[in-house]
């Protein structure tokens, strides 16, 4: 049963990484691409790391619990640091004058 949970969490993480990649390639501007990268990166990383935590509880031992706690601490760090870094990058882009995409600008450029 634990193996199935681990595979599901890894599948969710891999699907989220794939969706993030598609979002980065398909979205029209810097801000929406950073949004996709920030959200997808955190969600997929945390899902896969939670899969590792569940895997280490397959055969409970003190070593497995300590490794699981370390992985949870890494997940917490990613959960806190990645949105902060994404916000800082977007703020730097805004301060340097990166203009957000709008449909109206795109339609004017085609005429």
Describe this structure in words.
- By secondary structure, the chain is an all-alpha fold.
- It has one domain (2-110).
- The chain is built from 4 helices and no strands.
- Helix 1 (2-26) runs antiparallel to helix 2 and helix 2 packs antiparallel against helix 3.
- The longest helix is centred in the C-terminal third of the chain and has 34 residues, at 62-95.
- The radius of gyration is 19 Å and the shape is elongated.
- The N and C termini lie far apart (59 Å).
- The relative contact order is 0.14.
Number of strands: 0
**Helix count?**
4
Q: Name the poorly predicted regions.
A: none
Arithmetic mean of pLDDT: 90
Instruction: Provide the number of structural domains.
Output: 1
State the helical fraction: over 70%
Q: Structural class from helices and strands?
A: mainly alpha
Biggest beta sheet attributes = none
Beta-strand proportion: under 5%
Q: Element order, helices and strands?
A: HHHH
Gap between N and C termini, in Å?
59 Å
Q: What general form does the structure show?
A: elongated
Write down the Rg: 19 Å
